[in-house]
Amino acid sequence: VSERVAADGSIVVPMDEKSLQAAVQKLLEQEVEAIAVSLLFSFANPSHERAVADYIHEVVF
């Protein structure tokens, strides 16, 4: 997923929703049984990680 959060929690690159959609679609096409979400420096700013998880929940469930 195209995005970047700095170590201080500032957003360097906003999350690209189209790249998120494409990544999730690829995983669904591969019929994965689980998806782990772990983004760099999410401990400093979890907004992108939460958005990814929310999107996955919307699409899968």
From TrEMBL:
One of its GO terms (molecular function) is 5-oxoprolinase (ATP-hydrolyzing) activity. GO terms for cellular component: cytosol. Residues 1-59 form the Hydantoinase/oxoprolinase N-terminal domain. GO terms for biological process: glutathione metabolic process. PANTHER family: 5-OXOPROLINASE RELATED, HYPOTHETICAL 5-OXOPROLINASE (EUROFUNG)-RELATED. This is Hydantoinase/oxoprolinase N-terminal domain-containing protein.
